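R.M. (postdoc): so does anyone remember the format we settled on? I'll just put the structure tokens first.
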């Protein structure tokens, strides 16, 4: 939670408010743009999980700058606006972390990463980059639930490592590749 000031008194900004803020500022449907969408924006939706192999808590479709955030349980009515869906989130901390992660893939693409990444090392490097940009975005927004962020990041990266069956050598190479784009 972050502090927000209203009438001179500090208030807590919840993860739900942050999720709503990200949708308000990054979702193209909410912005009402079509051909003139600002960089760093995407078509954001909250949907039932669709991937057979679940690695991320969402999906970035690099061809159309679309982001699906997976919602467990009852997904919102497709007619419902992304803003209303964000407001109705039952797991706002997890969803804001995954939305930031998928926006991290978008940021990586804007920084010149090639999609889809080819090979195991590049696939893993892309995950590291997406987490790097997610963290940067959430720091900027004064997100505070870092224990949950770290847990989801670790779970996500472990899933990829196992799925890709990476060796220590490949992990090192992936870290080097990731550093090329993030500049860290
Ligand atoms: Zn990812």
């Amino acid at each position: 939670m972050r502090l927000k000031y209203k009438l001179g008194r500090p208030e807590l900004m919840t993860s739900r408010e942050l999720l709503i803020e990200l949708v308000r500022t990054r979702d193209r449907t909410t912005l009402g743009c079509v051909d003139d969408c600002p960089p760093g924006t995407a078509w954001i939706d909250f949907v039932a999980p669709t991937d057979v192999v679940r690695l991320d808590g969402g999906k970035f479709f690099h061809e159309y700058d679309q982001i699906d955030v997976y919602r467990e349980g009852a997904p919102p009515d497709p007619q419902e606006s992304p803003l209303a869906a964000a407001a109705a989130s039952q797991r706002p901390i997890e969803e804001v972390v995954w939305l930031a992660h998928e926006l991290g893939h978008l940021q990586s693409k804007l920084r010149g990463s090639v999609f889809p990444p080819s090979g195991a090392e590049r696939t893993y490097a892309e995950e590291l980059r997406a987490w790097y940009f997610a963290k940067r975005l959430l720091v900027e927004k004064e997100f505070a639930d870092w224990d949950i962020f770290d847990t989801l990041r670790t779970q996500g990266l472990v899933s990829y490592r196992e799925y890709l069956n990476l060796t220590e050598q490949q992990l090192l190479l992936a870290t080097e590749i990731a550093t090329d784009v993030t500049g860290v």
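R.M.: ...and that's the designed sequence above, right after the tokens. Also worth knowing: The radius of gyration is 17 Å. The longest strand covers residues 2-6.
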